[in-house]
Predict the structure.
Amino acid sequence: MAKLHLKRTPAEEAERALRKARKAAKTARKRSHLSEEAGKHGESSSKRRRRGEAIDSDLDEEIYGPPPPPSLSSAHKPDYDTILSELEDARFREKMWDALRHDERLDGIDARFNDYAHVPDRWRANAASGGSSEDHTDMDPRFMDDDTYTEWIRAGMWRRKNARQYEEEARMKAEKAARGARRKEMKAETTRLEKVAEERRKQKKRERESQREENARAEYDRKWKDLLDPNARHGSTLSFGDIPWPLFVPMVHSDTAHSDSSSITLEHFTTTAISAFLIPISTISALAQDVGVSLPTHDRDKKEKKEKLRETMLRFHPDKFEGRVMRKVIETDKDRVREAVGQVARVLNTLMEE
């Protein structure tokens, strides 16, 4: 298999040219030496030339190996401009790295100098904001370092020399601290009073809601008692709004707390609305629900719930309601009443299964 000869790069060409120049110089020196010896022994110039060429070829064979095969293209010449630009780039990068190392060394020296820098406390005060230096009057001089002790002595000398000004500043500082404490106390008291007022408003709102619910349940029971009274004469005058439905009547005007039974629609007959009306929640349970705590249900509460649901089911059972109440409803509202009664019965079945 023939040996693979790769094309030399410009740098390699330059290096090879330098080696050849050195070799040519060395060969010239050898030739001069051989010519001198040949002159002494009487050899001809042609023989000396052939002997020199043989020596050169032998040296090339030993150093560079066999010569490459002749190329079809023209001989490659080194690009000295490219070599020069590469050398300049390398020299520039080396200078940049030296400058960077120099800057890092200077930064390290600066940081070490700053570690030992000492700024007196009286110069650290923010005069623009009215700040004052740190007070060392209560410190024991035995436990101070040299700088702190120097500041302590200087502050003491200033207080003795300016006793009246120092007392005035101390008085103003105490008054400022007292005013800040009073403002803080007033703010805390205002916050507490606002919380108390908010709790009172919530309590009154709960009481009004509870009273309204109790009145609604009492009105519901009274209407059913009148509706089932055999001596009462209703005729066919009952409308959809006259039926005592097991839910709270929506508020029409929130400012006057006025309710209108005619505003009830089929969308109001939900499980949550009917359950809230039939199964009242105690005050303790309501407070527990507000804070997200669930209380266990007692057997007494379960029994009362079951009896209330059973009583309501007897009132709104479709068959019983059809025989006792439906004949008293006006003709235009009968279909709407039947649909509402069916919805109430389905909700009651769901609540009884829970």
